[in-house]
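Methods: holo model generation. Sequences were used as deposited, without trimming of termini or removal of tags, and paired with ligand SMILES retrieved from the corresponding compound records. Each pair was processed once, and we did not select among multiple samples. The sequence and zinc ion SMILES for this entry were:
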Amino acid sequence: MADTDEPMVVDGGSGRSCEWEGRWNHVKKFLERSGPFTHPDFEPSTESMQFLLETCKILVIGAGGLGCELLKDLALSGFRNIHVVDMDTIDVSNLNRQFLFRPKDIGRPKADVAADFINSRIPGCCVVPHFKKIQDLDETFYRQFHIIVCGLDSILARRWMNGMLLSLLAYDDGVLDPSSIIPLIDGGTEGFKGNARVILPGMTACIDCTLELYPPQINFPMCTIASMPRLPEHCVEYVRMLQWPKETPFGDGVVLDGDDPEHIQWVYQRSLERAAEFKITGVTYRLTQGVVKRIIPAVASTNAVIAAACATEVFKLATSAYIPLNNYMVFNDVDGLYTYTFEAERKEDCSACSQVPLDLHFSPTSKLQELLDFLTESASLQMKSPAITATVEGKNKTLYLQSVASIEQRTRPNLSKTLKDLGLSDGQELAVADVTTPQTMLFRLSFTL
Ligand SMILES: [Zn+2]
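and the model returned the structure below.
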């Protein structure tokens, strides 16, 4: 690399050629010679490099903390056909770690600014931005990519993406057509913790197979907060939701600001009083701020590590030169540094990837509400607003649908009816649609006595 007179290029300027001597030497070292860690079937050649530079098409979901890192890592590894999807605009609080953005970019779409930055900085790289929700793009869009890599902070979006890739799979007589598989590399971070995983949809554990690893969103019922607090968090929530608006300690209409120490101090003191009243321990200033802000701080270095791991996996899959991660890596540097890789297993009855309708065991006298609660509360399903339909007496019938007000109103009485009264029978198929996936899920009603 250093044996050329060409100066190292850090800025792509106009008029500069897109290639220069030794430009990809760092990547070629992995592809044009064998080594102890290469894939057993790997044959060194110049073809993989050409594939990266000219053909391979990558989709990056998210242009935030992980997305910025991913785009930079991929572009510097030789990937040139990259699309990026992000629905957010740039906020001042992003600038400490989302290094493709500058103060002048505040308010502009992250996808657009990130793409512009990479394209002007890395000659020959073509990042195409999509300032959109992932749900606004369809299967023809997703099908065009060789590999999809996610840098998201939302489980819902991950599950939807997972569902989309599962819906693209083609089966011939129950046998999966390997050419229909688009690998999904998923990165996630939370403070000093992170994970990277490789998902081969239909072959290895999918996002929903391991849903139980993600704790459901904590939302305390109002009655608990108001009358039966058990946890220190309940006390803070009580002060935040009820006492603050009632007592308006900092004047009328002053919104509780999690970054204002005086506000937090006030909430902390009142929470302590509330906790003492119910003999609850554990209320601290830190906990108070954590509950009020409801955010997990983003750590730039964690994003960098996880994005690098994900980009490495994209590189391994795209070139077939190395054996990919199998299949779930966890990283933690809260205390020292810890990393561990394990093989997440497919769940035989995964509602997203198992291809068999799940059995729902209910008594004929159970109410539809109970079934609905199960779909949202079960740790392995965690649906958000399921819409349930069934074929009853040859007719397609919507049993309950929440997302359209008029239909919700019309179907609400069904919730208090029993399954039997709704005309449902043992073995009945129920079709359930939910925001967690683009596909309709099939369940089979199995009556218990
Ligand atoms: Zn699955």
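The two ends are 74 Å apart (CA to CA).
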